[in-house]
Design goal:
GO terms for molecular function: transmembrane transporter activity. It is found in: Membrane. The chain is mainly alpha-helical. Among the domains are: about 425 residues, Growth Hormone, Chain: A (Up-down Bundle); about 55 residues. The chain is built from 25 helices and no strands. The radius of gyration is 28 Å and the shape is globular.
């Protein structure tokens, strides 16, 4: 055993800096005198397990869940928790700046830029395709114009179609790979494919213009495959990282998971901004400081090829980083499969998910579909008002500059979404409903008076609606769909479900790109708004609100479903607050019972503790290092260890080869499933120590320094 790790049953000096248990500092001598078969006092149990079963950020001191409180008390409780957390974060930032003024910048780089680097590159390149198309039209009208003579119109349209289809294939395939082989493999594979794809785009060529268009289109398909994989892999790895690493508690998961994932996702907006700014700079450099046509062939070639070559450098670095600096990206998935004895793809979990979470899949996939129709339709505004404002200017720079303004406004929406995503009075579901509603209004208003709003008299209002639709799309469905498509599903098939939902979303983009080729502008505005209304209805009916609900509790519920006993789960994951209207109508929440759930949590923890003890004893018998398994981190404090050691039947330590529930537990019903698999195989992550939590004392093993390799 490591010298720096102290076992709870071994005498040791009090650990400096830790909040002591009510009886004094922990020294390893506090064994509870509870012989096997004795029924412990419930109040005594709550004193020991309170910090694990009823953490103070979601439970009151008397053990009431925040969502069960009367409205006035609920508001007061939630505001108190969120204000305290905000104060703690501001103090932490202050300490960081006092030590090093630039440390918050480096923290943001590590926690937002790096996790979202792939999506940043995706936003850069994919939106570059639309940005450089006006430049191609101005330079090669014989190919990209309405009366093309040298290129097939089908191949010009295929540039967009193949790009979207490549993304869809990547989302489905890499989603399955992420659940089958692992998150880490998916991350490395995506970065490598995107790097090769950028090289293909930079070097795309042909003996004729049509030959170049064909090469360009297939290069986009290849690159799109890697980009598509970024959606499920980045989302799942971002939200699982804090749960799997052992460095952040479930408290942080409850309070900040949405922000963590959204700050990675908003790098997509930065990618768009950097691309548009770089295109403007490159065009001015190679066009003698002017943005007016005509544009020389050399100018266009240098501009568009360099715009692809520059991000290739960053993508190559991303391949290196994911290969050598993210060795534990699949940790949570490995733990989930280990608990259920699954070595390949978990088809049983896939079948159970469609049966139990079919409504959620309809919500995530359907809402993403509706959102992408809007996301693509937003460009309808731009072309219309630019034509009026610019007075028919043929300069590409005019459109690029207005698009730059739009991206900046979108970024404001991204950041505001990140800020309020975890607010329990707004959160995911409300944000998506309001976003869809506002997008519906911003499109339906001009739809019936398009002639007025595209005239000089109404163009300012039209322009305002354009920017508002961009803002509410990001501060709404575009950010929420990316997050909830992963977090409302269990670990074994999380990437697959996210990939399927994202693929359905891109089907919406494909529908829009095809449909818009066959209908006029007025008809487009008649069609598009109703997708916003449909998205709002789907959200209201089928999407649960997981704001404030940690992944481990959701995985704990999944363990009961996986064991075929969903009715035996009584925890907060089936609280009406966290269920969709559809699930409530089906009676999913009727088994919610806080008292039964508290007892179940203790027995679930007992079984997990016994499993770890069994593994530790087996390793010691075999002469192995019992603390060397990266997947097992001891999160129980000394009091919990002593409680279980003195109230657990020794028969639980006998490994009978069964992966099912133990039959040796003192008070466990044999029909109850084992403790949650996967992300929640360690339900008891050390909660944040607070002065008003007298029973919270960290185990010494959970406070040892974490090496860079473990991070």
């Amino acid at each position: 055993m490591d010298d720096d790790v102290m076992r709870p049953d071994t005498h040791h000096d009090p650990t400096p800096g830790l909040i002591p248990v009510p009886h004094g500092p922990a020294t390893g001598d506090e064994a509870l005198q509870l012989p096997f078969g004795h029924t412990p006092d419930p109040d005594h149990e709550k004193a020991i397990f309170g910090y694990l079963t009823q953490p103070d950020d979601i439970y009151t001191k008397d053990g009431t869940y925040w969502a069960d409180l009367p409205l006035r008390e609920r508001i007061a409780f939630v505001n108190k928790v969120q204000n305290e957390e905000a104060k703690q974060e501001l103090k932490a930032i202050g300490r960081m700046m006092k030590k090093d003024p630039l440390s918050p910048v480096s923290w943001y780089f590590r926690n937002a830029v790096l996790p979202g680097a792939g999506l940043g590159l995706e936003g850069y390149v994919l939106f570059s395709i639309g940005n450089i198309e006006p430049l191609f039209k101005a330079t090669w009208p014989q190919c990209w114009g309405h009366n093309a003579t040298e290129c097939s119109s089908n191949w010009i349209a295929a540039v967009t179609y193949l790009e979207v289809i490549g993304i869809m294939v990547g989302q489905l395939v890499v989603g399955v790979i992420g659940d089958w082989i692992g998150r880490r493999w998916g991350l490395i594979q995506d970065a490598a494919i995107m790097f090769v794809g950028l090289l293909m785009l930079t070097a795309s060529w042909g003996l004729t213009l049509q030959g170049w268009v064909i090469c360009y289109a297939w290069s986009l398909f290849f690159y799109g495959f890697g980009v598509g994989g970024e959606y499920p892999i980045t989302a799942t790895s971002s939200m699982e990282n804090s749960v799997a690493s052992g460095k952040l508690s479930t408290r942080n998961d409850r309070l900040h998971r949405g922000r963590k994932v959204t700050t990675a996702f908003l790098m997509q907006g930065w990618g768009q901004l950097i691309n548009q700014a770089l295109l403007i700079i490159l065009l001015l450099i190679f066009h003698a400081g002017s943005g007016s046509p005509p544009y020389g062939l050399a100018t266009v070639q240098w501009t568009f090829r360099l715009s692809f070559a520059i991000p290739a450098v960053g993508t190559l670095w991303l391949v290196y980083y994911r290969t050598y600096k993210m060795p534990h990206a699949s940790r949570q998935l490995i733990a989930a499969k280990k608990k259920t004895n699954v070595t390949g793809y978990d088809f049983d979990s896939l079948a159970m998910t469609t049966r139990h979470f079919g409504g959620r899949l309809l919500a995530t996939a359907g809402c993403w579909f509706c959102n992408d129709v809007f996301f693509y339709g937003n460009k309808l505004f731009q072309a219309q008002f630019i034509a009026v404002i610019s007075g028919g200017s043929s300069s590409v720079l005019t459109g690029w500059i207005w698009n730059l303004y739009n991206v900046i406004i979108s970024l404001v929406g991204y950041y505001l979404a990140s800020l309020l995503m975890d607010n329990r009075f707004y959160g995911r579901k409300m944000m998506q409903q309001v976003g869809f509603l506002m997008c519906f209004i911003m499109f339906v208003v001009p739809a019936f008076k398009l002639e007025y709003y595209t005239s000089p008299a109404g163009i300012k209002s039209f322009q305002a609606m354009y920017f508002l639709s961009s803002f509410f799309n990001q501060f709404g469905p575009n950010s929420v769909t990316f997050l909830v498509a992963g977090e409302v599903f269990p670990t074994p098939i999380r990437a697959s479900a996210h990939g399927f939902s994202a693929c359905c979303g891109k089907a919406g983009a494909l529908l829009a790109s095809v449909l818009y080729n066959y209908i006029d502008t007025q008809t487009k505005f008649y069609v598009v708004p109703w997708f916003g209304l449909a998205g709002m209805i789907l959200t209201w009916l089928f999407l649960p609100d997981t704001t404030g609900l940690d992944l481990k509790e959701q995985e704990r519920r999944w363990s009961y479903i996986r064991a075929g006993k969903p009715e035996d789960y009584h925890g907060i994951a089936i609280h009406p607050m966290h269920l969709s209207l559809w699930e409530r109508l089906r009676g999913v929440g009727k088994h919610y019972n806080p008292e039964l759930d508290h007892k179940q949590k203790i027995e679930d923890m007992r079984e997990e503790w016994a499993g770890k003890e069994r593994m530790r004893r087996e390793k010691e018998v075999n002469g192995q290092n019992s603390m060397g398994d990266d997947l097992e981190v001891d999160d129980f404090n000394d009091q919990v260890h002593h409680y279980f050691r003195n109230t657990t039947d020794q028969g639980m330590f006998v490994n009978d080869g069964s992966a099912g529930p133990s039959t040796h537990s003192r008070s466990r019903n044999n029909s109850e499933p084992p403790f949650a698999s996967g992300a929640n195989s360690k339900e008891v992550t050390q909660e944040k120590i607070r002065p008003d939590s007298p029973s919270t004392t960290q185990t010494p093993s959970s406070t040892r320094p974490v090496s860079e390799k473990e991070q």
